[in-house]
């Protein structure tokens, strides 16, 4: 009899719980810096594996592209978070008095490279001094300044780069910019033999794939910022050290130009070169940012005249949401 009473009471309780509305997830609009690719693998993994959902977040991911300025959309309030490709962009926001802040650096190394033909005999970045190099317009006021400061490059070397590999492939003396995880693979597929120089290995201290948000969101809802950053970090651990197939399926759906071979190459390259997980992240966790590294980067660029020495560069970032060891147990 007692069993029957308690059993009925339990069924009534279950019915009452089932009748209540489910907890709503916080809706977040997140803009990436390019079309879907392995360089966004951790974010797609966090969607595919339900990591964002477990942190109470529903993510509306908006792909970037050559004609899309995600920073402008973020500043206008049309995005809640955006990926910015390098450390220049948060500093530029401070200089332009735009209240945007980097809250995590998911790439400890910027994957930017210069690429030459192996047969041309260039040995390192120093050996490219004085040689014609194809770079994009934005690069003139970006990492090109690092090469000028470190190796004595000059603007007379600059040739226009249109993000088309044909001029490189048809000229055995050509040198161009690229991404470690993309262009070298595509050049090899087209029959070329590239010699690749990673700027990060020569002391270029820019972070990559930084998550940026508004100062207003940090002030109004720091818990949401924390949960989004934590979930993104966990997504990157899952993509690098777990099964990347769920993320890759979403990436290929969003960008059919991404082949299985290119995705596999990009992921393996990110792992072998420590693009995501190296240096500070080995102790502090993926996404790590340090004041010392920001200061070093700003100092070099301000000496090149890109920023006034008086600029309060610390407004560009906050380590408040990283450096807490999130996900370290998944590290290999």
Can you put this structure into words, describing what you see?
With 332 residues, the chain is of the alpha/beta class. The protein has 2 domains: 26-108 and 206-330, D-Maltodextrin-Binding Protein, domain 2, CATH 3.40.190; 112-202, 3-Layer(aba) Sandwich (D-Maltodextrin-Binding Protein, domain 2). 39% of the residues lie in helices and 17% in strands. It contains 14 helices and 10 strands. It has helices at residues 2-19, 41-48, 51-54, 70-75, 88-95, 144-151, 166-169, 183-189, 215-220, 222-241, 245-254, 260-272, 281-284, 291-303; strands at 26-31, 57-62, 81-86, 100-107, 112-117, 133-135, 158-160, 175-179, 194-198, 208-214. The strands form 3 sheets. It has a 5-stranded mixed sheet with strand order 2-1-3-10-4, sandwiched between helices. It has a 3-stranded antiparallel sheet with strand order 8-5-9, covered by helices on one side. The chain is globular and about 60 Å long. It starts with a helix and ends in a 29-residue tail after the last helix. Residues 1-21 have low confidence and may be disordered.
Task: Output the keywords.
332 residues; D-Maltodextrin-Binding Protein, domain 2; five-stranded mixed sheet; 14 helices; disordered N terminus
General form: globular
Helix tally equals 14
* SSE pattern: HEHHEHEHEEEHEHEHEEHHHHHH
Tell me which CATH architecture of the largest domain applies here: 3-Layer(aba) Sandwich
| CATH class label of the largest domain | Alpha Beta
Overall helicity:
25-40%
CATH superfamily of the largest domain: Periplasmic binding protein-like II
User: How many distinct beta strands?
Assistant: 10
The radius of gyration computed from the alpha-carbon positions, rounded to a whole number of angstroms, is: 23 Å
User: Which stretches of 5+ consecutive residues score pLDDT under 50?
Assistant: 1-21
Strand order in space, largest sheet:
2-1-3-10-4
Distance between the termini: 56 Å
Q: Tell me the major beta sheet.
A: 5 strands, mixed
Strand content: 15-25%
User: What integer is the average pLDDT?
Assistant: 92
Q: Which topology of the largest domain does CATH recognise?
A: D-Maltodextrin-Binding Protein, domain 2
């Amino acid at each position: 009899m007692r069993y029957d009473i308690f059993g009925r009471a339990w069924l009534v309780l279950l019915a009452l719980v089932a009748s209540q509305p489910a907890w709503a997830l916080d809706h977040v609009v997140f803009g990436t810096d390019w079309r879907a690719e392995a360089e966004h693998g951790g974010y797609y993994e966090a969607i595919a594996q339900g990591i964002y959902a477990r942190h109470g977040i529903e993510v509306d991911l908006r792909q970037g592209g050559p004609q899309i300025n995600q920073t402008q959309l973020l500043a206008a309030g049309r995005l809640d978070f955006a990926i910015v490709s390098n450390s220049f962009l948060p500093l530029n926001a401070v200089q332009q008095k735009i209240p945007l802040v980097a809250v995590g650096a998911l790439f400890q190394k910027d994957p930017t490279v210069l690429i030459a033909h192996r047969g041309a005999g260039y040995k390192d970045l120093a050996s490219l001094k004085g040689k014609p190099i194809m770079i994009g317009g934005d690069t003139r006021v970006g990492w090109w300044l690092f090469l000028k400061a470190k190796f004595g490059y000059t603007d007379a070397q600059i040739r226009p780069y249109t993000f088309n590999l044909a001029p490189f492939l048809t000229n055995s003396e050509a040198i161009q910019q690229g991404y470690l995880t993309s262009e070298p693979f595509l050049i090899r597929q087209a029959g070329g033999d590239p010699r690749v120089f990673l700027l990060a290995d020569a002391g270029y201290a820019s972070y990559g794939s930084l998550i940026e948000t508004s100062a207003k969101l940090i002030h109004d809802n720091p818990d949401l910022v924390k949960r989004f950053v934590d979930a993104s970090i966990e997504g990157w651990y899952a993509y690098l050290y777990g099964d990347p197939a769920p993320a890759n399926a979403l990436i290929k759906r969003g960008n059919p130009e991404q082949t299985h071979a290119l995705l596999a190459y990009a992921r393996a390259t990110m792992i072998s070169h420590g693009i995501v997980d190296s240096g500070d992240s080995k102790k502090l966790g993926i996404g790590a940012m340090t004041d010392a590294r920001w200061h070093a980067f700003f100092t070099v660029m301000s000496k090149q005249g890109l920023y006034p020495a008086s600029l309060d560069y610390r407004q560009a970032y906050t380590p408040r949401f990283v450096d807490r060891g999130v996900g370290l147990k998944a590290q290999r």
